[in-house]
Amino acid sequence: MTTPFMPIVLACRQMLPLAKRIADQNRTISLCDVDWKRFNDGWPDIFVQHIKSLVENRDVFFLASFDKPGDVFEQLALIYALPRYLARSVTVILPYFPTGTMERVDHEGQIATAQTLARMLSAIPLSTQGPARIVLYDIHALQGRFYFGDQVIPILETTMPLIKEILSKETNISIAFPDEGALKRFGSAFDDDNKIICSKTRLGDQRQVRIADGDPSGRHVVIVDDLVHSGTTLIECRNALIEAGAALVSCFVPHAIFEKRAWEKFIGQNAGLFANFWVTDSCPTTIKKIGNQAPFKVLSLAPSIAHFILTSR
């Protein structure tokens, strides 16, 4: 007798709005409540009512967001517990892998924290169906998947279909990559026609972006990269494209980190820098602060994640 596919979704507090949008995509997806409290000393006090009946022999999907190091512990505490309640399968959906930019050691003394986080996720106990799956969107370095142990299965997803659907309705579009890294990550997702490749060079303490290949003249150019911290590279790339004759410049960056409120560089009197600044809701804390301020437009991962869940049976 085949056990019916009955997915349930649990979410950290930051991801609850996205989790609700995922559940709204299909009535077969059940969203379960988690009481994320803390004791007076700051340590987690987590409670899931009726957890045994909810989880036993079910396919469990946990929507995670490791915004801050302190958020990691409480979420892992719940994730590690799911197999003990006899979950049939466990899948952790972590859209943004926060230590992905620290994935290698260039000098002795540096610590590859991407590997440390992968080890922590690799310690998830086996469920009745076997290893847990870790779903990541547009990880900064593809080799990061090899940091995970054999106890889990990393699955790399991409947000590129979201922007391609929007741009399919536009004309006169060119895609620009701010550096070789972005080209390697996303170049194959777009047609070779009308690609623009930029490069970064350093002159002393200053960094300069120039156009290495392609012609932006008269085009609406969309810069594509995986994440934004300060936004400086995007602005420099935009300036080089405008100087070379681009009619409009937009950008799509899935992971909106924006350290130290760096999004303020793009709003208010600076809102005209980019015609559109598309991001996803992979970093919920930042998205909550940005709101609907122009030029930002948030593309939700809910349809993509719901599709993943429903096709995982």
Description:
This protein has 313 residues and is an alpha/beta fold. It has nine helices and 17 strands. It has helices at 16-25, 51-55, 69-81, 113-122, 160-167, 180-186, 232-243, 284-290, 302-310; strands at 7-11, 30-31, 35-38, 44-47, 59-63, 89-93, 132-137, 152-157, 173-177, 195-203, 206-213, 220-224, 227-228, 248-252, 255-256, 277-280, 296-299. It is elongated.
Which labels suit this protein?
Rossmann fold, 26% strand, six-stranded parallel beta sheet, alpha/beta, 313 residues
Distance between the ends: 15 Å
Q: Specify the helix fraction band.
A: 25-40%
Please give the CATH architecture of the largest domain. Answer: 3-Layer(aba) Sandwich
Give the uncertain stretches in residue-range form. none
The averaged pLDDT comes out at: 90
Radius of gyration from the alpha-carbon trace, in angstroms: 21 Å
**What class do helices, strands and sheet pairing give?**
alpha/beta
Order of helices and strands: EHEEEHEHEHEEHEHEEEEHEEEHEH
Biggest sheet details = 7 strands, mixed
Shape: elongated
Tell me the name of the CATH class of the largest domain.
Alpha Beta
At CATH level 3, the topology of the largest domain is Rossmann fold
Summary, kept brief:
With 313 residues, this protein is an alpha/beta fold. The chain is built from 9 helices and 17 strands.
What does the secondary structure layout of this molecule look like, with pairings?
Layout lengths: L6 E5 L4 H10 L4 E2 L3 E4 L5 E4 L3 H5 L3 E5 L5 H13 L7 E5 L19 H10 L9 E6 L14 E6 L2 H8 L5 E5 L2 H7 L8 E9 L2 E8 L6 E5 L2 E2 L3 H12 L4 E5 L2 E2 L20 E4 L3 H7 L5 E4 L2 H9 L3
Helix pairs in contact: 1-9
